Fold this sequence. Notes:
Blueprint: H1 19-30, H2 35-48, H3 56-86, H4 92-101, H5 103-109, H6 115-118, H7 145-167, H8 173-199, H9 203-206, E1 227-229, E2 248-249, E3 256-260, E4 288-291, H10 302-308, E5 311-313, H11 328-341, E6 347-349, E7 356-359, E8 365-369
Parallel strand pairs: 1-3
Antiparallel strand pairs: 2-3, 4-8, 5-7, 6-7
Helix pairs in contact: 1-3, 1-7, 2-3, 2-7, 3-8, 4-5, 7-8, 10-11
Amino acid sequence: MFVRNKQLQYPVRVDKPDPVFAKQVQELIGGVYGEFTVMAQYLAQGWSLRGAEGNPKLTMIKDMLLDTAAEEIMHVEMLATMVGMLLNGASPEQQAEGASSNPAVAAVMGGMNPQHLIVSGLGAMYADSNGNPWSGSYVTAGGNVAADMYTDAIYEMQGRLQTSRVYEMTDDPGIRDTLSFMLARDLLHQQQFLAAVEELGGPTAVLPIPAQLTADKLGDKAQYAYAFMSYAQDPADTTAGQGRWANGPSLDGKGQYSYIAEPFALGMEANLPPAPAKIFGGLPGDPVGQIQMPRQAADGSGASASAAKGASVKQPVASASGTPAPSATSMASGASDAAATAPKGQMDKTSAGDPYVEVRESPLIVDETRDGGSRS
């Protein structure tokens, strides 16, 4: 349950409206690393964290995630308030004045975001500084608590970096005061997630991710697990081999870093066959690929056999009289015969219960011929 009051976490003050700067602040709201992203990310991670019951460390991390998510809602509110204040009295004349007073801003930003006038009516939007709508694809909640903690630290680092840049783009004392508070909070946030990794045991406990799949479980591929490979044409023209990542004990404490100075190739280039004729991938007379259905099941019967012949079985419903429809199993047993007689790509009926069987071609390329080949 969420509750709210009518106070802001920290005062927001804008000494002078500036619609051009409002466009820039939008990045801190709806950008990839904006406050709306981390708000949604920490909520998703907290709500989805499994195994917390009976595990004090996971319970602590879940509480921390949801507390921080609540604070990020407050930061969205503060920035939305700031954008609204920056847009007070916004007009085409003010836009021109703001752009002319700073030619660099005019060149880079192109002036005020017209959507602040047309779409949001002088209000903030869930969009970045270019007007691109916020996307849920920005959120990472992978279900592995250690991986999520590292990800959250990186998001806070990138978000704080961008806030620092926006801070330097204004000399408005009120805006700088508010942004400096957010910079202080983000300093803590990026470190709290790294501290959470320590709560879980630190790098030697959580790395690699997933921690269950260590190098010793990779068989003969383990030799590549801790080797840094250089791909410089001239091995003498790189200093990468001098780094910590190429020498000494591994961070997870389970191996020793090494350095391979010259690249090697163990595989051969793959040559894909031509696309089927109906893909129209070439010119008339060019080779085309042949299509073949998936292999039939070993016993040649049942639903597997019908699926192997390209049949797609649709579940029937009860008749108007209330007679139960045939089960999926009984439908599948008749699918093979139906598939054998039905025209490709069309619907056909079987006799028992009128279940429908759709026969479709499978786009599996297995051969190449000059004349288009045959289809089975």
